[in-house]
Specification:
Structural class: alpha+beta
Radius of gyration: 12 Å
Low-confidence stretches: none
Shape: globular
Largest sheet: 2 strands, antiparallel
Number of helices: 3
Helix content: 25-40%
Strand content: 5-15%
């Protein structure tokens, strides 16, 4: 697993808490959960308003760009 995912998750959680933005995180730890996802499983995926957006890790700037959509 990518060692930067945990750091990215913490940054996103903190930013969402600061701005009162709802956030749902789903830990995928089984093959069954991975198969039930609406996209190809990677170590990280971002959905916004039910739409798949990216598999790139988010930083504060990327999160802000996503929220402006």
């Amino acid at each position: 697993q990518c060692p930067f995912i945990a750091q990215s998750i913490e940054r996103v959680k903190k930013e969402c808490e600061t701005q009162a933005i709802p956030l749902t995180l789903r830990h995928v730890d089984t093959l069954e959960k991975a198969k039930a996802l609406p996209c190809v499983f990677n170590n990280w995926a971002v959905f916004y308003k039910g739409k798949f957006e990216t598999v790139n890790l988010l930083d504060d700037a990327a999160l802000q760009r996503l929220l402006k959509k």
